[in-house]
Design goal:
The chain has helices spanning 3-25, 32-39, 43-70, 74-93, 97-114, 117-125, 131-139, 141-156, 160-181, 207-235, 238-252, 258-265, 267-288, 292-320, 325-354, 356-369. The protein is 78% helix and 0% strand. The radius of gyration is 19 Å and the shape is globular.
């Protein structure tokens, strides 16, 4: 693939990650205050509905990895784009909490279908020396999606349904774009589907990766789901909370530089730094909420740290599972999402007991503790 084709592939991949992750999956928290008010949702019900987004991802992630490995990456990526459009359209229309929950679930399946197969696309269709950089740009699509959602939320005001309808239309357009851009066949299809053993997931060198992924998912779900609601409660100013979300998204765009960061510093050093950065942003948010500058600082640190950290998990996975990139990659992000699915549910039951502020402080401490994990143990797993 020449340089022009690689740039086109990177742009299309970034765009579909923006709509599946940045919009379909993570924007529920942005509109949570208005949605909760309209439907009269309790904290426990909010946690269960938010958890459905991650449950949808879990239900789809292995399907996306399997379809990519056995057939071609293009198929699950396009299915993911369609799921994002359908789920967000259903959220926009939902007349009851039950339909809202269904829309959140369908939208949540979209990144599970679309994201893991990009590891196959990158490994098979780009030069190895450029793979970290290409992947980092595609992964940063989450930040672009979150950054786009903030201004639209300000424009829509209390009309959260209009925002979700716009998101759905954008997802449909980007899905068509990927349909024209993605390679139609993968090299291995010339000799038939590959047989890859799932036993490679039991590779001992991947244990640290998998444990870290799961815990990272739990603690970051607290921030994605409840940060805007926490700020609205503490400050009584929903406009500042939306501006906070915009800063978070813009900071996430810096995730495109993760490839260069790893190439310069190494995976281990970058991982430790980012674990402290993300943990500090989560744990200090209740304290920093007293000032506008403080809450924006927390958003900037979390936005940049989260996107780069997920890129590091992806690179760590691709380094271990060279023989079957989408299988190892998919399972890594499956575990992140398993944690992110459990996080809102557990939080919904903990908040009435501990309060939101203590919940954020505890999650921040756990994230900082992830810096103790040794990433150097990862070595390529045999096929």
């Amino acid at each position: 693939m020449n340089q022009r084709q690689t740039r086109g592939l990177t742009a299309a991949g970034l765009a579909i990650v923006a709509v599946t992750y940045g919009l379909a999956r993570y924007c529920f928290g942005l509109f949570l205050p208005d949605i909760r008010l309209e439907f009269g949702l309790t904290p426990e019900l909010v946690g269960l509905i938010a958890g459905l987004s991650y449950l949808g991802y879990l239900a789809a992630t292995f399907a996306g990895s399997w379809l990519s490995t056995m057939f071609e990456p293009r198929l699950p990526i396009l299915l993911g784009g369609c799921a994002a459009a359908a789920g967000m359209a259903l959220i926009a229309w939902s007349p009851t909490p039950a339909f809202l929950a269904l829309g959140v679930f369908i939208a949540g399946t979209s990144p599970g279908l679309a994201y893991p197969p990009f590891s196959d696309v990158i490994v098979r269709h780009t030069e190895q020396s450029r793979q970290n950089v290409v992947y980092a740009w595609i992964n940063s699509g989450t930040g672009f999606g979150v950054a786009f959602a903030g201004p639209l939320a300000l424009y829509a005001g209390g009309d959260w349904r209009l925002a979700w309808l716009v998101f759905a239309g954008l997802a449909l357009v980007i899905t068509f774009w990927n349909g024209f851009t993605l390679p139609r066949r993968s090299p291995h299809l010339e000799t038939g589907p590959r047989k890859v053993s799932l036993w490679i997931l039991l590779e001992r060198s991947a244990r640290a990766l998998f444990i870290s992924s799961f815990l990272f998912g739990i603690v970051t779900a607290v921030y994605w789901t409840y940060a805007v609601d926490l700020l609205t409660t503490l400050t009584g100013n929903p406009r500042d909370a939306i501006l906070f979300w915009i800063v978070l998204g813009i900071a996430g765009v810096t995730g495109c530089f993760a490839g260069g960061l790893v190439n310069r510093w190494g995976l281990g050093r970058a991982y430790k730094l980012l674990a402290f950065l993300v943990g500090g942003a989560i744990g200090t948010l209740p304290l920093l909420a007293a000032s506008t500058l403080g809450m924006f600082l927390s958003a900037a640190c979390f936005g940049a740290g989260f996107i780069v950290m997920t890129a590091l998990f992806g690179m760590w996975s691709m380094r271990i599972f060279r023989a079957a990139p989408s299988i190892g990659f998919g399972f890594t992000f499956f575990l992140i999402s398993l944690g992110q699915g459990a996080g809102p549910v557990l939080s919904g039951f903990l908040i009435p007991v501990t309060g939101q502020s203590m919940l954020f402080f505890g999650a921040g401490l756990i994230c900082c503790a992830l810096a103790l994990v040794n990433t150097a143990s990862g070595r390529p797993a045999p096929a």
